[in-house]
Write a structure and sequence with these properties.
By secondary structure, the chain is of the alpha+beta class. Helices cover 36% and strands 12% of the residues. It has helices at 51-68, 79-97, 102-106, 109-127, 142-151, 176-179, 223-229, 231-235, 239-242, and strands at residues 28-32, 44-48, 186-192, 200-206, 209-211, 220-222. Strands 3, 4, 5 and 6 form a 4-stranded antiparallel β-sheet that branches. A two-stranded antiparallel sheet has the order 1-2.
Length: 256
């Protein structure tokens, strides 16, 4: 039940100030003294919450919902409230970790260097009849995945996400809760479809689903076309200068 349906809600109390959730993500919570009563009764006290406290309640809601498939905390919010908060999260991720700034995609170049280097080694070893590493696995967070998505132009909307165009993006591609969930992942798979170098193809999988790449417009892209498209990231990786590092931080495989 929600406060918009005139039911009482008992919540954990925080110190805060009055706002409504439709006025930049704040909310008025009703706490009733003694037994739970409706707002038509006279014992109601208005409890004031900061935006950060509302986000904490939302986090309780989302974590419990993901873990237990239900959460009483979620009853505080309407569907529209949840959409607004979801968009706030997407705005943060879009600008801090993804398309908002070019550097977010540029810092992924070490991964491009390593991926294509490993594939080149596998191609060469296969042609020479030698064994090669079948898979290299790396582990990170949303801060790893989202920049890579932007470097590959995945889940990119035609119009940038802004605080002022929420209604325009109700059906946006860039929705963090979908593209960067628990155990989110991305991986390219190299396919050999014949004996010639032109018979090598790559598919990009995101969360176990193959996605088309803008580099070729298809789900299955020629390997050497991709290598050409991303040649700048591969051959001119400026990770150290971008991040002001003294020593090289290009990662080495964790598991081969």
């Amino acid at each position: 039940m929600t406060i918009y349906q005139y039911y009482s809600i008992v919540v954990l109390l925080f110190v805060g100030e009055i706002m409504t959730i439709h006025q930049y993500y704040s909310i008025v919570i009703l706490l009733f003294v003694g037994e739970i009563m409706t707002i038509h009764q006279f014992c109601s006290i208005v409890i004031l919450l900061f935006v950060g406290e509302i986000m904490t309640i939302h986090q309780f809601c989302s974590i419990e919902l993901a873990t237990f498939n239900a959460s009483a905390w979620c009853s505080v919010f309407t569907e529209e409230d949840l959409e607004v908060i979801d968009y706030e999260h997407d705005l943060y991720n879009y600008w801090r970790k993804s398309y908002g700034h070019v550097i977010n995609s540029e810092i992924t170049c070490p991964m491009f260097v390593d991926v294509f280097r490993n594939m080149d080694k596998a191609i060469q070893a296969d042609r020479e009849g030698h064994s090669y590493t079948v898979g290299t696995f790396r582990f990170g967070h949303a801060e790893t995945l989202l920049p890579i998505y932007s470097a590959l132009s995945l889940f990119r909307d035609n119009v940038p996400l802004l605080a002022s165009n929420y209604n325009l993006h109700r059906k946006r591609k860039y929705r963090s809760s979908n593209i960067s969930p628990f155990a989110g992942n991305i991986y390219p798979v190299l396919y050999k479809c014949g004996d010639d170098l032109g018979d090598l193809y790559v598919k990009m999988f995101v969360n176990e689903v193959d996605h088309p790449l803008s580099a070729c417009g298809n789900n299955l892209c020629p390997y050497y076309l991709l290598k050409s498209v991303y040649s700048d990231a591969i051959n001119n990786c400026r990770f150290n200068s971008l991040c002001h590092n003294v020593h090289s931080t290009i990662p080495s495989p964790v598991v081969g």
